[in-house]
Amino acid sequence: MLRFLGMSGRATIAFSVVFGLLTGAVGSAQEPVRLRVEPLTVPPATQPLIGVVVENLRDQPWRGELSLAGPDGWRIAPESRTIEVPASGERRFAFNIEKARNVEANSYPLRVTARVGDQVVERSQAVFVASAPYSKAVVDGRADEWQDAIPVTFQDQGKRTTVRTFWSRKRFYLLVTVQEDQHVGEPGPGRRLVDAVQLAVSPLDDADGPARTSQRAEWLLRAGDGGADCYQLAAVDTPIASAGPARDLELLRCRDVEVAIQRKGDVTHYECAIPFRLLRDAVEPAEGREFFLSVLVHDPDGTGLRDLGRAAGLWARAADAAAWSRWPGAAWEKTPPLGNKVRWGLCTSKY
């Protein structure tokens, strides 16, 4: 997966925030910064990278020391570095992984610490490798061809969701396996809400993109008459005013995306292949390319919304309300899901 050294036991996904000489809740006025570790990616011909995002919560520049520690046996370089973040700004800092070990669970506990003077902010966070190996699969709703993918698994109310990705020169492949008590695929008499998977792919840097556009390619995967349907809810250049409100899905049907949905036991498999020509404004098919990918699982009769962004430790932002398109048959919670900003990458292989 990461060209690491061997295997070790399973790790448990968990998130916590601990403060040294600071007290108070996340985002309190006492904290100078807040910290987040991004998912790991695998650039070609280099060691894996860890990105740490630092947000300055004060209205003056912040200068301090940022350090990162991994599991036992890991070697991270540099272990610490002096950083500066502009007033009320945010910056990303990269660390190299020189030595590490894979774990089957694809979950790695890391500890990041920011210090300035006698102030210390520390965050412990389990992160995952978010990379799509170069491969392909027959889109049939089965998981038997996905052994070479890098699984990203998270739980919500005891139910598992696993996201796997591949890429080829022509297509981006996605398999989402959803553990649920039952699958409600189509609306019917007295039943309006349905199960589905919603996904979005966004360019890494959209700061220079056209104003008031969605800046994402977004699709909905849902069971249809005797099969599976795909609807394109937004393109990168879709106006936000058009991408947000619920629209007639028949007008958004996308036949260019291969999709299959199959139920096996208590798990529903959502599988699709998206032509890269539909992603050209978000990511190019080449080793080492990075982008943002997020997935929402709609399980209205069970866990409700399951959000990959929450599992990745994203922060809530004001823009989240416009980050996902609404559609008929979905149940939306009062608090919107997090923005589609989970860093992902294209790699050559998991090995």
Which key terms come to mind for this protein?
disordered N terminus; mainly beta; Immunoglobulin-like; 2 domains; five-stranded antiparallel β-sheet; 351 residues; seven-stranded mixed β-sheet; 23 strands
Shape: globular
Radius of gyration: 20 Å
> What is the number of helical segments per DSSP (H or I, 4+ residues)?
2
Tell me the structural class. Answer: mainly beta
Walk me through the structure:
With 351 residues, this protein is mainly β. The chain folds into 2 domains: 7-127, Immunoglobulins (Immunoglobulin-like); 131-346, Immunoglobulin-like, CATH 2.60.40.1190. 2% of the residues lie in helices and 42% in strands. The chain contains 2 helices and 23 strands. The strands form 5 sheets. Strands 12, 16, 17, 18, 21, 22 and 23 form a 7-stranded mixed β-sheet that branches. Strands 2-11-10-5-7 form a 5-stranded antiparallel β-sheet, with no helix packed on it. It has a 5-stranded antiparallel β-sheet with strand order 13-14-15-20-19, with no helix packed on it. Strand 19 (258-264) and strand 20 (267-275) form a beta hairpin. The protein is globular, with a radius of gyration of 20 Å. The termini are close together. 38% of the residues are buried.
Offer a concise description of the structure:
The protein is an all-beta fold. Helices cover 2% and strands 42% of the residues.
Outline the secondary-structure elements.
Elements: E1 7-8, E2 15-19, E3 33-37, E4 49-56, E5 62-69, E6 75-77, E7 80-85, E8 90-99, E9 102-103, E10 108-116, E11 119-127, E12 131-132, E13 152-156, E14 159-167, E15 171-179, E16 196-202, E17 217-224, E18 227-234, H1 240-243, E19 258-264, E20 267-275, E21 290-299, E22 304-307, H2 308-311, E23 343-346
Parallel strand pairs: 1-9, 12-23
Antiparallel strand pairs: 2-11, 3-4, 4-8, 5-7, 5-10, 6-8, 10-11, 13-14, 14-15, 15-20, 16-17, 16-21, 17-18, 19-20, 21-22, 21-23
